[in-house]
Amino acid sequence: MLTTLKEILADARAKQYAVPAFDCSEDVMVRTILETCQAQRTPAILMCLQMQLAGNGWVYISGLVKAVADHHDIPVVLHLDHADNLDQIRKAIDLGFSSVMIDGSRLPFDENVGITRATVDMASPQGISVEGELGHVGGLDLEATEHADSVLTEPDEVTQFVQQTGVDALAVSIGTAHGVYRSEPQLNIERLKELNAVSCVPLVLHGGSGTPDDQIQQAVRNGICKLNIFADERVAMFQGLKHACQQGRQDPLPEQLFGPIKQELANVITHKIELLGAQNQV
User: Fold this and answer.
1) Which residue of the set 81, 103, 168, 232 is catalytic?
2) Which of 94, 96, 140, 203 has the greatest number of C-beta atoms within 10 Å?
């Protein structure tokens, strides 16, 4: 059943667990994520990046998720991740996304507030949740060609940002990075405690792939309610692809090609669910 980010994160914050959010760009990913979350009795957040939706991807992925959501008796969120302009937000609203994330984190504070407030004004009347970002989570871009530095979120800006924008969830920067890490991260848990103390909305951590499990669990204990995952999915699918290539048939059946990929991906999804304490929460 399709629902909003606001609804499932309210439960996560009240019960002190976090929900993993998985990027998806193909039907194999959608099916594996949903079926694994169903088996684990956890809410499912399926995220899409604008570059993954180019061309007909907008229609294919949103249409698929909306078509299958009611066949699962767990909450399902269709979430647009890291939109950086209002045209993308409008398109997501028109196509039935139940949640959107506007990323104004590279902008000066007032401009970030402005574009985030405009997103809330567009989405909220339609019953669509909005996630904003304060501070900036850097790291590698998806093409692995550019690396940006992270900027930690300042506690004294959180209350003002949330009040002025009306966001339902806030992505914060405490030391993670997007993509594959160049060195092991060290999350600033003390900063997270300060952010959680002043935030009236659930906190989100981007760049969750590759972060040591013990640090992730510390973050959940101190206020993180949603963890974004993508690079770990890609690593798992590549391992599955290599296993699939080892089978001997010249004309392998689809289940022989996609089976190992789905299994490796399901293993990662299950681990993240258990790590965050999200199993059996539905």
Assistant:
1) 81
2) 203
